[in-house]
Design a protein that fits this description.
5-stranded antiparallel β-sheet; 726 residues; mainly beta; 4-stranded mixed β-sheet; 51 strands; 9 helices
Length: 726
């Protein structure tokens, strides 16, 4: 390289010498002009030569040399040739232009099985490139080969680069299943174990549990990274949320379990559990009045029977043409026991939860009540009421034509509840077409898990009955007015009291003294026993159809109170007759409550339409039984709630002061027109219905034709008066 430079320099000198050695005598016109060449370089390089003086027309070669990291782009004269030849015809300046040299690099992006990645290509040096990894279904992105873990990353290229997006197969999410040994019904105030089995293919990491209406505690869980195990959760309901109060006392709650695996995959599962109130053990040594429907006062017993396939929805008759289509809900051939009025509520198996016994009545194609029907026992099990008659009775299942009323009490003195059913017999002319004995059901669950059936063949036909320890000897006695027929086909049967020997054996008593048996006991529909005036002695209320007494100017069927005395002898000479109500002289139930807190209970009487017309004249059924008047007259149509105050045993009708909207006057057309208000109310309960601290008068869900809520009626005490709740 040095020899070449020396040669060029020598040539340059020789050339100049030659040019300068012109003849001195040459004239000016023959002298060749000389011009200056100035060459320069922009940033990023150099030029050669940089300057010189040359004869006109001389061609000079100028070379541009870029610095490292630069490249030649052009000359200031627009030429891009390097080196460039400049012909000098004037003083000339020329500049070489350079630019930063930009390298191109290759970005290689690949992915493992289970996904794809974008961003590969050719890019200039310094370019920022975004790479994105996308997992396929069932896979997850684990990271880039450079250690990055974000699915999208940005890199700046300074060299050829290769990156790999890594994916892996996602394990199945955690799964849960109930253990066979887990508890599925939980009691308020008690902690029981809720057990689930879990499978965690991705390795166990964590667990969370919550419930809407209870408290939870995690007692046991798998170790970290374990692929399976058992979770034991302690759960206790704090409140019972029952959305089906007409068929159960139980509620439901949701236990929500979340399991997270090592891949942060979360599985959530909701388990529904049954919750129930704390068990309550009842004292059955009480008057039957105090135990009526007891804790099951909201239960629709017929709906429970329907759910157990023991009754039809319609409730009366088995002929669709007999009822309007709006009432024809459902019917199954062979289920002809669709109505009932007698229900005994008691804790048969002493588990703290009450069960019930129903005495249905035949409602099939033959005449009403003309065929005996099996009793039905329903035990509370697992949050439901389950039909158990086939398992419960120690002998044959008892049957009856018509049981109007059931009494609950400890009749045999063993501490548990028994039930007495007052049998009416066939409710057909001549009344009753055929009589039947009443029965006492003795609870022997504590011995053999059975119910023993005992006939009580003392009353001719009982449309009512009531019980209490009348003679204060420590056992429950039974009262029934029975059917008064002293000289007829049912002569010889008893009226009044049966005294208990303490073991459930009953003997007739003459503890009720009367002057006229017809006035004392005839036409009685209902009775109850309570200490009305709070003097320590039980008083007996009874009454029935008073219209005959009104027409004949006597007291047949009139409502009355026989006052208890120290000698436990009841006398019709020591009774109080209560006021009648025109048009509603048919009494079906009674209750007692001290509404004005004066120490004496008011008498709350439930009435329905009688067999008198609007002019007070008797509607004659002719040779037919009086029940044929139902639907054809006011007989057993509508309702009337009467409230009577007793001041020193003198009656005062205070109905208008104590209750509003208390009656509905109509014929009974529930079957023909679907007017549910027109049907007679079967029973009345006085207690706090909705647990708001205010007493209510309401009807239990015992009715002729459903649905039950159409038959439900309720009045709530506002501090001075009962107001109807719509």
């Amino acid at each position: 390289m040095k020899k070449l430079t020396l040669y060029i320099s020598l040539l340059f000198v020789l050339t100049c010498a030659k040019e300068d050695s012109q003849d001195p005598g040459t004239t000016p016109s023959n002298i060749t002009p000389r011009y200056t060449l100035t060459a320069s370089a922009g940033e990023g390089g150099s030029v050669s030569p940089t300057t010189g003086s040359f004869n006109a027309g001389t061609q000079v070669s100028v070379t541009a040399t870029p610095n490292s990291g630069y490249q030649f782009t052009s000359w200031s004269n627009g030429s891009t040739v390097n080196p460039v030849t400049v012909t000098l015809n004037s003083n000339t300046s020329i500049t070489a232009n350079f630019e930063v040299l930009i390298n191109s690099y290759t970005l290689t992006v690949v992915s493992t099985d289970g996904g794809s990645a974008t961003g590969a290509g050719e890019y200039n040096e310094g370019t920022e490139v975004t790479l994105t990894a996308t997992a396929s279904d069932g896979y997850r992105f684990t990271g880039w080969s450079d250690g990055s873990t974000e699915e999208s990353i940005t890199i700046t290229l300074s060299e050829d680069t290769a990156l790999t997006a890594n994916f892996e197969l996602i394990p199945d999410p955690p799964s849960m299943s109930l253990s066979e040994s887990t508890t599925l019904i939980f009691t308020k105030g008690q902690v029981d174990n809720f057990i689930i089995n879990i499978i965690v293919p991705g390795g166990y990491k964590s667990l969370s549990v919550e419930s809407q209406n209870g408290e939870t505690t995690i007692f046991e869980e798998p170790l970290l990274n374990e692929s399976s195990g058992q979770v034991i959760i302690g759960y206790s309901p704090t409140s019972i949320i029952n959305n089906y109060e007409n068929i159960t006392i139980a509620g439901k709650d949701s236990i929500i379990v979340n399991i997270t695996d090592q891949y942060d995959t979360i599985s959530e599962q909701t388990f529904e559990v049954i919750t129930q109130p704390e068990p309550t053990f009842h004292n059955y040594f009480k008057p039957s009045h105090d135990l009526q429907f007891n804790s099951l006062f909201k239960i629709d017993f017929k709906k429970v029977r329907i759910l157990n396939n023991k009754a039809n929805e319609i409730g009366f008759g088995n002929n669709p043409n007999y009822m309007p289509n709006s009432l024809w809900v459902d019917y199954t051939e062979g289920l002809d026991q669709d109505t009932h009025t007698a229900v005994a509520v008691l804790d048969l198996n002493q588990d703290g939860y009450e069960d019930f016994i129903v005495a249905p009545t035949y409602t099939g194609s033959a005449e009403f009540s003309s065929i005996k029907v099996d009793y039905e026992v329903y035990l509370y099990e697992g949050g439901e009421f389950i039909y158990k008659s086939n398992d419960i009775f120690s002998n044959q299942i008892p049957k009856s034509y018509l049981a109007r009323k059931a009494l609950v009490g400890d009749f045999d003195g063993d501490g548990d509840g028994d039930a007495y059913f007052a049998h009416t017999g066939m409710d057909l002319a001549p009344y009753p077409r055929e009589r039947e004995s009443s029965i006492l059901l003795i609870n022997e669950f504590d011995n053999n898990g059975k119910i023993k059936v005992v006939e009580i063949d003392e009353f001719a036909s009982s449309h009512e009955a009531s019980s209490a320890d009348i003679d204060n000897d420590g056992d429950l006695d039974i009262f029934s007015a029975s059917l008064v027929d002293p000289n007829g086909r049912f002569s010889g049967y008893h009226y009044g009291l049966l005294l208990n020997d303490g073991n459930g054996n009953f003997q007739r008593s003459n503890n009720i003294l009367y002057e006229n048996i017809l006035e004392a006991f005839s036409l009685i529909n209902t009775s109850e026993i309570s200490d009305i005036d709070n003097d320590g002695y039980y008083d007996i209320f009874y009454g029935g159809g008073g219209s005959i007494g009104i027409l004949t100017n006597n007291i047949y069927g009139f409502p009355r109170v026989l006052w208890g005395e120290q000698d436990y002898i009841y006398k019709t000479t020591n009774q109080t007759l209560l006021p009648n109500v025109q048009g509603f002289d048919n009494i079906v139930d009674v209750d007692f409550y001290d509404l004005d807190m004066d120490g004496t209970k008011e008498v709350i009487i439930l009435r329905t339409g009688d067999n008198l017309d609007d002019d007070g004249n008797l509607i004659n059924a002719g040779d037919e039984f009086i029940n044929t008047l139902i639907g054809e007259s006011y007989y057993y149509g509508g309702y009337y709630i009467q409230i009577v105050k007793l001041n020193d045993r003198s009656p005062i009708d205070v109905t208008s002061d104590f209750i509003s909207d208390n009656f509905y006057r109509t014929s009974n057309n529930v079957w023909s027109e679907g007017d549910y208000n027109s049907d007679w109310i079967k029973w009345l309960i006085v207690k706090d219905y909705d647990n708001n601290g205010l007493i209510d008068i309401f009807t239990p869900l015992i009715y002729s034709v459903g649905p039950g809520d159409k038959n439900f009626k309720r009045w709530e005490w506002n501090g001075s008066k009962f107001i109807k709740v719509e």
